[in-house]
Design goal:
heterodimer; A: Immunoglobulin-like; 29% helix; B: 81% helix; transmembrane (chain A); Ig-like_fold (chain A); membrane (chain A); DUF58 domain-containing protein (chain A)
């Protein structure tokens, strides 16, 4: 038997009993003394209150442990009393992962449980990207009178893993910086390709197919037609996961980090499809780096990374972060011919300085910026104007910027592309 | 996203208010002042439960106690007063329990079993207690001299101090 802490529920009853008894004596009314007697019985009941040894087993079943995003997953919580005593007053609150929202039915349970009996609670959560582990379940046990209460935590390991498919729904055009491998990015380097670039004097060894025969017929000189060479790029997708980037326009809306990761996974898939080598990095307290590469293995690795790496978790990180160290480390890792696609809401000046520094070091930077601002209040409008100014500053320094509002990424891209120079 | 309504549970509210109503009815057999007091206490209990305020629930308990005290002092019948005392304690207990369960688990959770077991436990203890007290009274029926009454008071005080220590 364990004695928990006193709930102080019946505090004051002893005083009332004494008052009733005193009044009974003074008025010589037996009925008041009897009522006081009843109070004494209750006090005795409260006095003997004790909680049996709590020994609970908790099991949790998920209808689908690896759901797609936005799927509803039914969770069945089973609580079994493995102790020898009956638990008269058992209250269970399940430790639902903070990122998962309970969509239907409370993740709570209140019942009385005989030894060996099992109580069940069923609720539904909406899956979001990531790996979610359930926290400890909090159990509150009270004795039948409610005078004594004890709190314990019981844990049952359950993990829900939600890995979205990498879908290439929008094609992100790259900038001119490329590697030496053939690919699809049109460069200004003359050579073989599709788009006409220039005509130059014939040099020994030029392929016969590329000799300009019209000119030969007209002037008698040999000339070679040159095309814009198409090469593959090496791209690193950098996602801003600093606590500052965990901002959303409303309580229920997706945070900018969520949207950045979405944009990065779309871009990843599209770039991989077009033969470029793509890498992933997180710019935040949690370190994450996937070196640029290509192939099916790489795609699978990236899919897992986007889904389950703690750096891309939908909840803000709480570790210490040294941004200048992170920038230096990122720069060391980037190959000199690597382009950078930086996904950041740009709600502070540091994001701008990161993009500008990377651009200055010769990595062609494209910023994809999900817009988390609103126009609800004057402060929000000021934040929006500040962000607009930051975007303008970036554009002025030669960085490509995609301002991504509420519309799908593809639409934002089509609108922005019109204004981009090659 | 479903929110948790941290208000006294519906089951507990219904049970507490019905018991409070019955108690008021019982007080009606004593004096009309006590019955009015019971009615006020019931309204206060209802207000406390709907507002979700523990303080108002406790105040309602106090009003019930005052009504009992008045009824007893003006010579109410033993049976009626004992029954009303039983009802008052049960009503307050159920209301307070509904409040605490609502705070822990919210209104959406199914807590019928939990609250029924709690109500049954309290009811059994109170019923047995009332039967014992009433039986003792019957057994010792007759006009007690004042010394016996004083001794009884001393006994009650001793009991209370021992039991609450």
């Amino acid at each position: 038997m364990s004695r928990g802490f006193d709930t102080e529920r019946w505090t004051g009853l002893d005083g009332l009993v004494l008052v009733a008894a005193g009044a009974g004596v003074f008025t010589r009314e037996a009925s008041l003394l009897l009522a006081a007697g009843l109070g004494v019985v209750v006090l005795g009941y409260v006095r003997v209150a004790a909680i049996p040894e709590v020994s609970l087993r908790i099991e949790r079943d998920l209808s689908d442990a690896t759901p797609d995003p936005d799927d509803e997953v039914e969770v069945t919580l089973r609580v079994t009393n493995e102790g020898s005593g009956t638990l008269f007053d058992l209250r269970v609150v399940d430790g639902v992962p903070p990122a998962l929202g309970v969509a239907d039915g409370p993740a709570r349970l209140g019942t009385a449980l005989r030894p060996g009996a099992t109580a069940t609670a069923t609720y539904t959560v909406t899956a979001v990207r990531g790996e979610h582990a359930w926290d400890e379940t909090v159990v509150v046990v009270r004795d039948p009178s409610g005078a004594v209460e004890s709190r314990e935590t019981v844990s049952a390991e359950t993990t829900l893993r939600c890995e979205p498919e990498l879908a290439a729904t929008a094609d992100l055009p790259l900038r001119g910086l490329t590697s030496k491998y053939a690919g699809r990015v049109e460069t200004d380097v003359p050579g073989s390709g599709l788009e006409f670039a220039s005509i130059r004097e014939y040099r020994h060894g030029d392929p016969i197919r590329r000799i300009d025969w019209n000119r030969r017929a007209r002037t008698g000189e040999l000339a070679t037609v040159e095309f814009r060479e198409e090469r593959a790029a090496s791209v690193v997708l950098v996602v801003d996961t600093r606590p500052e980037a965990h901002v959303a326009p409303g309580d229920e809306a997706e945070t900018a980090v969520e949207r950045s990761v979405d944009a990065a996974s779309v871009a990843f898939s599209a770039l991989l499809d077009s033969g470029d080598s793509v890498g992933v990095a997180a710019f935040g307290p949690d370190e994450c780096w996937l070196a640029p590469s290509s192939g099916a293995d790489h795609r699978a690795r990236a899919r897992r990374l986007f889904a389950t790496h703690p750096a891309f978790a939908p909840t803000p990180p709480d570790g210490a972060f040294f941004p200048s160290v992170a920038v230096r480390r990122l720069r060391r890792r980037l190959a000199s011919d690597a382009q950078v696609i930086f996904c950041s809401p740009l709600v502070d000046d540091y994001g701008v300085s990161v993009a500008r520094r990377l651009e200055a070091y010769g990595h062609a930077v494209t910023v994809v910026s999900p817009d988390p601002t609103t126009t609800a209040t004057i402060g929000a409008r000021l934040a929006r104007i500040e962000r607009d100014l930051r975007l303008r500053e970036l554009r002025r320094s030669g960085v490509r910027v995609l301002d991504w509002g509420d519309e799908p990424l593809g639409v934002a891209l089509a609108r922005a592309e019109a204004g981009w120079s090659r | 996203m479903s929110e948790i309504t941290r208000k006294p549970t519906r089951t507990g509210t219904a049970m507490a208010l019905s018991v409070a109503g019955l108690t008021t009815f019982t007080l009606g057999f004593t004096t009309s002042t006590a019955a009015v007091g019971g009615l006020v206490a019931t309204v206060a209990l209802a207000a406390g439960l709907f507002r979700g305020s523990r303080r108002i629930v406790d105040a309602a308990g106090g009003l019930f106690f005052l009504s009992l005290l008045f009824a007893g002092a003006t010579g109410a019948g033993t049976e009626a007063l004992l029954l009303a005392a039983l009802g008052s304690i049960l009503a307050w207990d159920l209301a307070e329990n509904a409040h605490s369960v609502g705070e822990h688990l919210g209104r959406e959770t199914d807590t019928l079993r939990l609250e029924l077991v709690h109500a049954a436990a309290t009811l059994v203890v109170l019923a047995v207690g009332a039967a014992v007290v009433y039986g003792a009274d019957r057994a010792a029926a007759g006009g007690q001299p004042i010394t016996a009454v004083v001794l009884l008071l001393v006994g009650v005080v001793a009991l209370v101090t021992v039991v609450t220590r």
